[in-house]
Amino acid sequence: MNHVHISNLSLSLAALMVVITLIISYWQKLKLEKEIIWSIFRSVVQLIVIGFALRFIFKVNNVLLTFLMMIFIVLNAAYNGKKRAKGIKHAYLISFVSLFIGTATTIGLMLLTKVISPKPFQAIPVTGMIAGNSMAAVGLVYANLYQSFNENSARIEEKLALGASPKLAANEITRKALHFGLQPTIDSVRMYGLVQLPGMMSGLIMSGLDPVEAIKYQILVVFMLFCSTGISVTIAGFWAYHQYFDKEWRLILP
Amino acid sequence: MLVVNNLSYKVGSKILFHNLNFTVKSGSSLLLTGPSGSGKSTILKLIARLVVPQIGTIQIDGKNITDLPIETYRRKVSYATQSAQLFGHKVADNLNLPFIIRNQPIDIRKQEKGLDLMGLTQDYLQKPISELSGGERQRVGLLRNLLFVPKILLLDEISTGLDIKTKNKVWRVIYQLQSKNHFSLISISHDQEEIAQAKNILRIGGGN
Fold first, then answer.
1. CA distance A141 to chain B (A)
2. How many Å lie between the alpha carbon of A137 and the closest alpha carbon of chain B?
3. What are φ and ψ of residue B30, in 5° steps?
4. What is the CATH number of domain B2-203?
5. What is the pTM of this model?
6. pLDDT per residue over A54-112, tens digit each?
7. Domain boundaries defined on chain B
8. To bridge B20 with a disulfide, which of A188, B7, B43, B102 should be the other Cys (CB 3.0-4.6 Å)?
9. How far apart are CA A199 and CA A219, in angstroms?
10. Which residues of A touch B73 (CB under 8 A)?
């Protein structure tokens, strides 16, 4: 396999590409310059730290350390998902539990079927992919719940007034939110190979792996993304809608 | 019997009503009237337990309503809003809901009979709600509250937007059902004709 090697000098020069976007932002008065610089700085620092951390974890090859790293990824994903949970109580807990169950089930199934081994160089990147995708989906569910509950408060209250339970009153909204959360995964997967060559497959091809072999991994990614996203979105959606009601079956809007 | 004791409610620093007391005997009616924003709808919502109570108590047959299980309470104390919000796609989706709430098989004949009472033909059951007029929406909405006769019916300006003929028909149906089933009726109205016909009236004024 031909390993891809990028020199530090080449990487530094490539950073000039960002200048184009900064010029656009300045020229069009988008006022995004600070945000762009900050986000790039942050991502570079985060990636450097994680690069060294992963090198260490791979070298040590310890199950407990691998597990802790996976938990760290899920905790971070939950924190990010929570940010979109406007007005949802216990959003961090909901996000963590839903992402953890989604991720753990998927990883568990892959270990059981021996698709991956519990080695850190396999388990950690897979956790990152799964948790990242599920995090975005759970965030969309939260955003959609917030919008729908606010837009449809009169209809929900009317159902409650007729004697409907919160579950029945929020049924349509919860289903719509789950749909909304899953849709981007369905859309992006649908276009795999036609518009984009997905990340994992591209990485493997760039590393010199035979494309036919690389697609096997990508197909695996499709399966695991659906599994984890489906589970996480369902748990988060059904748990989160409860937060819009009190014990007396009253609608509580933030 | 419904007894409202020293009921007070304020929104922010604005007092909607203060120390409100009234009684509605089983099978009798009370009409609430007064200026907009005086808290009439809030009173009905407090009785329906749709808003968080602040000060005072509401009792039904000697029991504080907050002590009654909410799972069954709103099936007995039914609240119809000013502008009925319809759900789903068809009229049937709305008339199915009361059955679904009670875990009962959907009784199409009962739905058709109800539509007939409201002056709507049976084929309305399959009609898309987007094709209904304001008055028809209001009647479908009210029928949801009446398919299972409640113990207390709370009507929040339900005749607003109805033409005189439909309004009279709807009230005739409500009074017929009330005399047959003896439910208590608390309604809100600004309609002079309805106020003139009411036996018991309670005027709600800002901060009274």
1. 21
2. 26
3. -140, 135
4. 3.40.50.300
5. 0.85
6. 999 999 999 999 999 999 999 999 999 888 888 899 999 999 999 999 999 999 999 99
7. 2-203
8. B7
9. 12
10. 163
- Enumerate the residues of chain A whose CB falls inside 8 A of the CB of residue B149: none
Asked if B101 lies within 8 A of A249 by C-beta distance, the reply is no
- Say whether B75 and A163 touch across the interface (CB within 8 A): yes
Tens digit of each residue's pLDDT (9 = 90 or more) over B181-204: 999 999 999 888 889 888 899 999
DSSP 8-state code for residue A195: T
10 Å CB burial of residue A29 (0-12, 13-18, 19+) is exposed
- For the stretch B59-76, what's the b/e string if a residue is b when 16 or more beta carbons lie within 10 angstroms of its beta carbon? bbeeeebeebebeebbbe
Chain B positions touching chain A (beta carbons under 8 Å):
48-52, 66, 70-75, 78-81, 84-85, 87, 97-98, 100-102, 141, 144-145
Report in angstroms the alpha-carbon separations of B102 from A3, A20, B39, B73, B147. Answer: 66, 63, 31, 12, 11
Q: How far is A94 from chain B (nearest CA, A)?
A: 26
Token pair belonging to B41:
């709808």
Distances in Å between the Cα of B133 and the Cα atoms of A156, A231, B117, B120, B175 are: 22, 42, 17, 12, 24
**pLDDT digits over B27-42, tens only?**
999 999 999 889 999 9
**Nearest-CA distance from B102 to chain A in Å?**
8
At A139, the amino acid letter reads G
The complex scores an ipTM of 0.91
Task: Give the CA count within 13 Å in the CB-facing half-sphere of B23.
Answer: 5
